[in-house]
């Protein structure tokens, strides 16, 4: 769970352990390895909106996380 309704895309991945750093998260996003709510978006310079339903994030084939607002 998070307290903020918006969070920087690479920071989201590193904060929840899906990437070791924001630099690694940026590389994963650019490579197309990150899926947010079923959509692959290679634009890493943006904020991710987290609503009441939450956000489902998939990194590669094995890492899957659902993040909700607190």
Topology summary:
Blueprint: E1 6-8, H1 9-15, H2 22-31, E2 34-36, E3 39-40, E4 47-49, E5 55-59, E6 63-67
Antiparallel strand pairs: 1-4, 2-3, 2-5, 5-6
Helix pairs in contact: 1-2
Folded structure, characterized:
This protein is α+β, with helices and mostly antiparallel strands. 24% of the residues lie in helices and 30% in strands. Strands 3-2-5-6 form a four-stranded antiparallel β-sheet. It has a two-stranded antiparallel ribbon with strand order 1-4. Helix 1 packs across helix 2 (22-31). It is globular and about 30 Å long. It has helices spanning 9-15, 22-31; strands spanning 6-8, 34-36, 39-40, 47-49, 55-59, 63-67. The protein starts with 5 loop residues before the first strand and ends with a strand.
How large is the count of helical segments? 2
Instruction: Please indicate the percent range of residues in DSSP E strands (runs of 2 or more).
Output: 25-35%
Give the helix level as a range of percent: 10-25%
Can you summarize the main beta sheet? 4 strands, antiparallel
Overall average residue pLDDT: 92
Q: Roughly how many Å apart are the termini?
A: 5 Å
* SSE string: EHHEEEEE
Coarse shape: globular
Radius of gyration: 11 Å
Gist of the model:
The chain is of the alpha+beta class and 70 residues long. Helix content is 24%, strand content 30%. The strands form two sheets. The chain has a four-stranded antiparallel β-sheet.
